[in-house]
Design a protein that fits this description.
Strand 5 and strand 6 form a beta hairpin. Helices cover 28% and strands 26% of the residues. The protein is of the alpha+beta class and 213 residues long. It has a five-stranded antiparallel beta sheet, with helices on one face. A three-stranded antiparallel beta sheet has the order 2-7-4, sandwiched between helices. It has five helices and eight strands; from the N terminus they run ααββαββααββββ. The two termini are 48 Å apart.
């Protein structure tokens, strides 16, 4: 078998072992390489020497325990929590607050994740032009999940509590929106809303987290 064929065979063995055992090697700075999880001799590999050289032709890998050494662009993060006061069931728009914070984060391109820290309210992206859309959406969920204590075992917190949990489960507690050029990539008629499912006044907390560059 020629040297080129031997190298390809050893490369295959190295890659296979990387998948099975989480093994890889880190080469010189700036060189792509496979992430390493330990020395292959720990597993009694007869191809240890060949596998070490086969990670990248001509480069002797430095074997060590650790995560991937693959080069990647530096990413930054930003995090905050906003609070929204609700006074009745329905949808409360937070697009402005979220957009303002995202623009001030100094992260141009990335992904914004929003997470509401409650089980009786949720997050939705919906039309922000005709308020009848929001009214109809709330009315629809009220029809399919009525406030009827005969239907539920959990009634200790009021007739509206268990229906609120179900409506929250049918919608979302987390949303993601791309960020491009410091602006949310929402559609023309899209708005971000806290969907309150309970009667009464509440303070709802929403975590905002951006990862990008």
């Amino acid at each position: 078998m020629g040297s080129a064929a031997s190298l390809r065979a050893a490369s295959f063995v190295a890659l296979r072992r990387a998948i099975l055992y989480g093994i890889s090697a880190s080469g010189p700075a700036g060189k792509p390489c496979v992430a390493i999880g330990g020395d292959p001799s720990d597993y009694g590999d007869p191809f240890e020497s060949a596998a070490r050289e086969a990670i990248e032709p001509g480069i002797r890998g430095s074997w060590r325990t650790g995560r991937s050494r693959l080069p990647s662009p530096a990413l930054r993060q930003a995090f905050t929590t906003i609070e929204i006061g609700t006074r009745e069931p329905g949808l409360f728009e937070i697009t402005h607050e979220v957009s303002e914070w995202a623009s001030a984060s100094d992260i141009a391109d990335g992904l914004l994740t929003m997470f509401i820290r409650h089980t009786s309210a949720s997050l939705v992206i919906q039309e922000n032009a005709d308020p009848d859309v929001l009214t109809d959406l709330d009315a629809f969920l009220r029809r399919i999940v009525p406030e009827d204590t005969r239907l539920y075992r959990h009634t200790a917190e009021g007739a509206d509590d268990m229906p609120a949990h179900i409506r929250s489960a049918l919608t979302s507690t987390q949303l993601s929106v791309p960020l491009r050029g410091g602006r949310l990539r929402l559609g023309t008629w899209q708005g971000i809303y806290v969907f309150e499912h309970r009667r009464g006044r509440f303070r709802r907390s929403v975590d905002l987290h951006i990862v990008g560059d």
